[in-house]
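ok here's the first one, seq then struct tokens
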Amino acid sequence: MPTKKITNNCKIGQLTYSKESNEFQSAPEANSDIILLLGYINIRFNSETETATQVWGFHHNFNWIERKIVSPNASKGILRLNLDLDPGDTKRLNQPNEWNTYYDRESGWICFGNPENSSRDNSVEFFTNTIVTLSNTGEIESLWLKPEFIE
């Protein structure tokens, strides 16, 4: 499963959510040839460095649960893949309806998974406004995104 490494910086880019196509996109695109799927959301990894590069994927907003959520206290760093996957492989971590999606209109944060684990210190921002919270065993517990919404 993924692990984090604190580097005090993360990949810089722009995370957007298209209201028209209901998809997240990260720019600029980076070499990514291994995918971890959280529902239909892709966390993409570079097989040469085994590090996460970006997030993208379809996720309709009709099932978002709107409520106040507090994003985790994340360190900027690298999300490293600790799975035996080859270039071109995709691994589904959960089914599309296994996790709820929470949206805080005031802050702009979206949480896939458990928003209550935000107080843990095991969170890493690996791309601009893109945070993963890991359990002590390296399992992804939640994915936090704060995209720019576009029409």
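and now the second one, same deal
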Amino acid sequence: MSEELRPFPPVLQPGPRLDLLEGLRSYAAEFAELARHSARHLNLHTTDANALVEVLVAERGGEPLSPARLAERVALTSGATNALVNRLEKAGYVVRSREHTDRRQVSLRSTELARTRTEALYTRPSVLLDQALDRIDPRTIMEMTAALQVLAGALNRINRELGTPEWQDAPESAKKMF
């Protein structure tokens, strides 16, 4: 018995939009693979390695993360984030710093060990990505950045909607109309 398969996803037709989304899916898969390799080299769980990168990126931007902000960035509860930060501290990668006038506020800071190990790990990938970006016109990069912001906003909305009790309790027929 042969059954005709419906296209997946059913809304998007073959063409440039579907090609773009497939390219983003492929990039996300490669990025996830890099995260797994990074975690292995740092002797961390993937989530912990991703959290360490969030701490490093925030420091580079001049705004260190609080544990609450880190929890938002890695989509964990405060309890799970506390356990994660404890593991990063035990591994020697982060310290909790009380540098605010309100001593109850804590900032997460990377250690020299974290900076040394991640620099050794990420220098080559950064060079290769920089070389790939050199092959793209600066105007196209700006347009791609704007497009990615629009798509990230759409995914943010989708994720918020999927996380609501209304969605989780909805009948399957309603979920198909998403």
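notes on #2: The longest helix spans residues 16-42. Strands lie at 94-97, 107-110.
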